[in-house]
Amino acid sequence: MNNFLDNIAKKYHFTFQEQQILKTIQRDLLQWGEKGLEEIWNYSLEEKYEGKKLKKELLSHIKKYYESLREKPTNYKDFTPKIQPQKIKIEELKKDSLGFGACPVASEKTRCCNLLTLDAVESCGYDCSYCSIQSFYNEGKVVFDKDFKTKLNSIKLDPNEFYHIGTGQSSDSLMWGNRYGVLDALVEFAKKNPNVLLEFKTKSDNISYFLDKQDLPKNLLFTWSLNPQIVIDKEEHLTVSLIDRLKAARKIADMGMLVGFHFHPMIYIEDFEKEYGEVFTKLKEMFDPKEVVLVSLGTLTFIKPVIKKIRSRDFQSKILQLPMSDASGKLSYPLDIKEKMFSFAYQSLKEWHKDVYFYMCMEDKSLWKKVFGYEYPTNESFEMDMKLSYMKKVRGKVD
Q1: Could you list the residue range(s) of the whole structural domain that residue 171 is in?
Q2: Integer distance in angstroms from the first to the last C-alpha of the chain?
Q3: What is the Cα–Cα distance from 269 to 291, expressed in whole angstroms?
Q4: CA 296, CA 386: separation in Å to the nearest integer?
Q5: Residues 64/70/72/73 CA torsion (nearest 10 deg)
Q6: What gap in Å lies between CA 67 and CA 198, rounded to an integer?
Q7: For residue range 304-359, what is the model confidence (pLDDT) as tens digits?
Q8: Do residues 385 and 115 touch, judged by C-beta distance below 8 A?
Q9: Whole-angstrom Cα distance, residue 356 to residue 358?
Q10: Structural domains of the chain, count
Q11: Which residues contact 17 (CB under 8 A, 6 or more apart)?
Q12: pTM of whole model > 0.90?
């Protein structure tokens, strides 16, 4: 294929910039499992045009074909990705700092809940094609902090404040189990600080650590990231199946603990309503809304380093086969597609509206009114309303 690019570059006198555009398109087409440039090259245009006009028409033809693939819902039915999971090395090291603070992607340009994040582990052992963690840490290395428990216990919190802290920002919260005592330390921290809602976010079913515990603090929140099985099969490599995630959540709920569900990222796939509708139906069959704290909605949003990382990998994925629009300096679906996806999700779970807190994670402010029928004037008002809802559920468990 490189020979083909070299040959057409010489034949049609493409500039360096034009060659780079063609290389990017070629890389994407092969990663998406589509026909390559050589198969779609339109030599018949030579009969109509010549010189600069011919070059312009050839590039236009390729770009139109490329963009036409991105305008449609992603079709996974005939896509069997070739993947090479990244090898990982697990280390326990002494870190300089705990990694505790405001959500690193918080922005005033989008509506944000001001979640506090805690880096219990750095980097993830799963291999989701869209993951942004891969651009933050050393490739192939998962790091545990030797002094994690000590640093965790040194956190100073105001006893009169209510805190929502998540451990799923820098790694999957549960896939590692209690390796190096990480869950022991977190559960002890939750017991010591009843004014903290400590959230574990996962795509695993690794809940064995909790099943034999009789004295778990009620301020633990277990949440699962969900997608239709076809998305899990094609893009969420090494993670457990949808039904295994739901079964794990059911076991945790049966223990009297609080659960929640994240539809983030939602992906605009062919037969979207059918595929996601089946997931929503399964949720309503398996869970009472009084057991569920939250349902969050969000979708694919990329920064350029993540896109570069995805394109550099020797694997196949359709995750970049979407119509990319500017989203506060990042790239994501156009707002009309987001509104369609989020509205469908919200209305599919209308029986849960009174008992479950629904929100959008890091999405454009304008979507709230359109999807939920209400909006927040500031991130702080969003944060306060969310915490009040969560506190009510936690107190219901404690009482």
Answers
A1: 89-398
A2: 66
A3: 29
A4: 11
A5: 170
A6: 43
A7: 889 998 998 888 999 999 999 988 888 999 999 999 999 999 999 999 999 999 99
A8: no
A9: 6
A10: 2
A11: none
A12: yes
